[in-house]
Recover the amino acids of this structure.
């Protein structure tokens, strides 16, 4: 009976939310259109061209057996540290390099390939999703804050936070695994890794053109879904602001900001960042009432939490593979707390000393950011990204039409 009432209340809640959203679109058509265009521009200029190459290469590396090869080599590292197979090292590296939600897509793909158990997939997805360095250094540090030196402390805190989440999530599902046969990490063996690579390639032996076409179609299809979520949450965030719900809900964050000893004026920027990290980071950078360190701590939390937009993308990807979303959400909260804490702890050694009084000790990685390399990379992505997006959308349409016109008997 209680379950029946719970299901009815869920139905009423979802129906009411959808009705309110539709009513808001009718009441604020101009603002909704502007927010939709803003989300579309972000996807068109940045998200699609930056993620597509990683998605395609990842699909090909899995098909060719390279990921299985790396998995054997990385098994002695990943299994003791994070309780995941060595293939998790590939998902971890690609997730850091390409950003949200690459880690979730690769985790789902490896799970579908039966290279991960359900618990291992939940663990792996929790710490392989992060912001990429180009976004942290180019968009946030150089673009929003106009301060490239800030990128080092944000990036180090972000990735240290992710590692910390992985070390904690290694205990996730440990009781269930105790009932199963315990798998010991295989020792490093290059010959065995090469044999694994060859066996995997033989299992997926298809013409190169077929593999490449499938990789492009799968990648573009995922990116179309991501674009839809970006536009949806951009509009949703704007409508909450127009209906003054942001002002009503943001004060709930003030108590948490007080506990963290952060200015209350960051409530609305942080609330916006809970929905969409780009808008939230930009609003935090424009808060004059907060000091730079306070803004950096708040930005670290927003970047690590990922925003409901990113989490909806990940939830959709994980749901297709029947992987639970709850561990990922808990991990994002942990990542936000860890990243913000590391930013506070590392502020003096990584920012005050390097940007202030010790220029000779600035790492080479920071010199690149200081010279504007990351900012230039971000500018080039925005300039030529739409062209790459258009070309691959045309290629995707051609591949879909070609696949539909082929006889069903052909493979």
């Amino acid at each position: 009976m209680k379950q029946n009432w719970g299901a009815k209340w869920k139905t009423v809640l979802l129906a009411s939310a959808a009705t309110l959203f539709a009513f808001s679109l009718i009441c604020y058509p101009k603002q909704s259109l502007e927010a939709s265009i803003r989300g579309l521009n972000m996807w068109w200029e940045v998200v699609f061209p930056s993620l597509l190459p990683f998605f395609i290469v990842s699909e090909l590396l899995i098909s060719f057996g390279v990921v299985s090869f790396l998995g054997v080599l990385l098994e002695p590292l990943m299994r003791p540290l994070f309780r995941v197979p060595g293939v998790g090292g590939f998902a971890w590296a690609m997730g850091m390099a390409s950003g949200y939600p690459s880690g979730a897509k690769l985790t789902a793909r490896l799970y579908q390939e039966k290279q991960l158990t359900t618990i291992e997939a939940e663990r792996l997805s929790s710490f392989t999703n992060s912001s990429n360095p180009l976004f942290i250094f180019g968009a946030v540090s150089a673009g929003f804050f106009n301060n490239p030196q800030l990128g080092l402390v944000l990036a180090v805190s972000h990735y240290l936070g992710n590692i910390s989440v992985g070390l904690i999530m290694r205990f996730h599902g440990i009781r269930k695994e105790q009932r199963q046969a315990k798998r010991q990490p295989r020792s490093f063996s290059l010959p065995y890794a090469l044999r694994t690579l060859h066996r995997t390639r033989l299992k997926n032996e298809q013409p190169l053109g077929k593999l490449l076409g499938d990789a492009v179609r799968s990648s573009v299809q995922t990116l179309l879904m991501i674009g839809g979520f970006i536009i949806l949450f951009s509009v949703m965030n704007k409508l909450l602001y127009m209906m003054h719900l942001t002002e009503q809900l943001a004060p709930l964050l003030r108590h948490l900001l007080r506990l963290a000893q952060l200015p209350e004026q960051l409530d609305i920027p942080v609330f916006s960042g809970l929905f969409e990290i780009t808008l939230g980071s930009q609003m935090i950078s424009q808060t004059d009432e907060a000091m730079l360190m306070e803004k950096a701590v708040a930005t670290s939390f927003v970047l690590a939490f990922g925003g409901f937009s990113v989490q909806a993308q990940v939830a959709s990807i994980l749901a297709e593979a029947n992987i639970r979303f709850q561990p990922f959400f808990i991990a994002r909260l942990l990542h936000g707390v860890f990243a913000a804490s590391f930013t506070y702890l590392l502020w003096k050694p990584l920012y005050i000393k390097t940007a202030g009084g010790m220029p000779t000790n600035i790492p080479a990685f920071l010199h690149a950011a200081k010279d504007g390399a990351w900012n230039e990379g971000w500018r080039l992505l925005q300039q030529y990204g739409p062209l790459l997006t258009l070309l691959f959308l045309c290629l995707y349409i051609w591949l879909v039409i070609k696949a539909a016109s082929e006889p069903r008997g052909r493979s």
